[in-house]
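User: Sequence recovery, please. Input:
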């Protein structure tokens, strides 16, 4: 979305469109879980090399929230080996000291080693780390951002203009500080406007929860970039909550033409990649019932006649049609949530500031709906996602940490139970026990209830078959886990730190 917005602005200014994006797993990862691609640093470096072949100057921004993704580590290392072309930037939300310090499987470095090398290069403005945090870290990130802006100016100027650098650096720093300050104020306004709708958001959360509890579905029907927000929120539910791909789905007007994704139309990849409104009407709407929840997401700048026509078609199948509408006019229509933003007068504000407000607000609302809906479905226990998909190394480690925390068993005991659940066998061979983590995650990617099954094995000291039977006996995973953890005679014997539990991300 950032790439699309910036390129549209450059196009309007009749400038070359220089922004491009990369994502582990390719464009399929925008729509479905492709977590295993995150574990491959070689793939990351290879894809970056292909994308930037022939480029003379590239600013690469690698994003890994917990400073742990191998895919990003490989790309940053590639950049640092080619500093004549690349200026690498690492964006995350952890201190470098907490970056994952285990050597990445099949590689020679840990993410922490890569980040520390970048720290050294940052001293000479050849690499930058932006890892904002509450407190002093925020100012460090702003300082690094200012250095990056000044450095980007330097690499585009000839030696004859070096005399202006000190003045330019000062002006860029002051200007950037004001931009950052205005950005923070924008976030504050979005927070205030969005959460003034708390009661209505709560009503939508309850409705989504009821649909998921009844084995129904939640469908996001969005327009333009708000449609993209819906698609991304839906795709994240699969690894996060162990959700089925059909539980929460997103659709966008004009499909991939509106998405403007790099790989274009990928509907041939399977039914889960059919994302247009036409696909919804053709493939989904005939099967919609009152157990389903449909949420329209739009602005009053969109084609209201098109929205009304699709709404009329939808209400013929279900009464559970709701909407989030963004407007700049103060005109309210009959929707669950209607958020009014100030009228903007400049093209910059119209292109970026207003879109940012709408998109961020929508993201928060959808996140509340999908997270709250899965909580009500029983996928969460004591604020932990007990039914996550064990689909990459990060989530494998997180699963083990959850088992240790809630059962008190040792790491080897938890790993034994986890592997029994993954391979669906009581008797594990030495080949399975000694296999690389990526083999385990490959097997786990298609399995359901892996962590809950392991919890029951450990707490009830029972066989795999009995654990699966106990889970089958209840429709709510949280209830099954709680029954085991509070059973008479059961006592948790161990604890584990929050950092270990989160797997650094």
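Assistant: Recovered sequence (505 residues):
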């Amino acid at each position: 979305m950032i790439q699309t917005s910036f390129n549209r602005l450059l196009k309007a200014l009749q400038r070359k469109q220089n922004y491009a994006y990369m994502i582990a797993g390719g464009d399929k990862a925008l729509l479905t879980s492709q977590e295993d691609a995150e574990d491959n640093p070689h793939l990351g470096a290879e894809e970056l090399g292909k994308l930037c072949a022939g480029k003379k100057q590239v600013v690469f921004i690698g994003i890994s929230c917990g400073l742990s993704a191998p895919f990003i580590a490989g790309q940053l290392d590639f950049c640092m080996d080619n500093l004549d072309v690349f200026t690498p930037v690492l964006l995350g939300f952890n201190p470098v000291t907490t970056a994952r310090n285990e050597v990445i499987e099949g590689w020679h470095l840990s993410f922490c080693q890569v980040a520390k090398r970048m720290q050294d290069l940052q001293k000479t403005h050849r690499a930058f780390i932006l890892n904002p945090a509450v407190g002093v870290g925020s100012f460090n990130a702003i300082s690094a951002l200012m250095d990056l802006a000044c450095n980007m100016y330097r690499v585009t100027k000839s030696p004859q203009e070096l005399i202006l650098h000190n003045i330019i650096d000062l002006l860029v720093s002051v200007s950037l500080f004001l931009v950052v300050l205005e950005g923070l104020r924008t976030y504050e306004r979005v927070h205030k406007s969005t959460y003034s709708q708390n009661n209505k958001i709560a009503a939508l959360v309850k409705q989504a929860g009821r649909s998921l509890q009844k084995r129904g579905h939640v469908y996001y029907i969005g327009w333009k970039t708000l449609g993209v927000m819906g698609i991304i929120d839906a795709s994240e539910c699969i690894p996060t909550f162990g959700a089925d791909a059909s539980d929460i789905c997103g659709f966008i007007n004009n499909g991939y033409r509106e998405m403007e994704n790099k790989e274009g139309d990928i509907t041939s990849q399977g039914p889960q990649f059919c994302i247009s409104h036409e696909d919804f009407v053709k493939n989904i709407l005939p099967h919609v019932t009152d157990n389903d929840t449909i949420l329209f997401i739009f602005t009053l700048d969109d084609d209201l006649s098109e929205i009304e026509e699709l709404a009329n078609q939808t209400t013929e199948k279900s009464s559970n049609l709701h909407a989030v509408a963004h407007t700049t006019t103060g005109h309210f229509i009959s929707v669950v949530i209607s958020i009014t933003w100030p009228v903007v007068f400049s093209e910059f504000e119209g292109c970026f500031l207003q879109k940012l407000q709408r998109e961020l607000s929508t993201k928060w609302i959808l996140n509340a709906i999908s997270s709250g809906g899965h909580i009500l479905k029983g996928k969460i226990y004591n604020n932990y996602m007990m039914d996550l998909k064990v689909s990459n190394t990060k989530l494998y480690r997180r699963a083990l940490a959850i088992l240790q925390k809630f059962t008190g068993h040792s790491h080897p005991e938890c790993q034994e139970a986890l592997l029994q659940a993954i391979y669906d066998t009581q008797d594990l061979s030495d080949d399975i026990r000694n296999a690389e983590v990526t083999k385990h995650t490959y097997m786990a990617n298609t399995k359901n209830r892996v962590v809950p099954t392991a919890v029951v094995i450990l707490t009830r000291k029972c066989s795999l078959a009995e654990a699966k039977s106990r889970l089958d006996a209840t429709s709510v995973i949280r209830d099954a886990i709680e029954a085991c953890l509070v059973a008479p005679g059961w006592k948790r014997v161990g604890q584990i730190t929050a950092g270990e539990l989160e797997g650094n991300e």
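The two ends are 23 Å apart (CA to CA).
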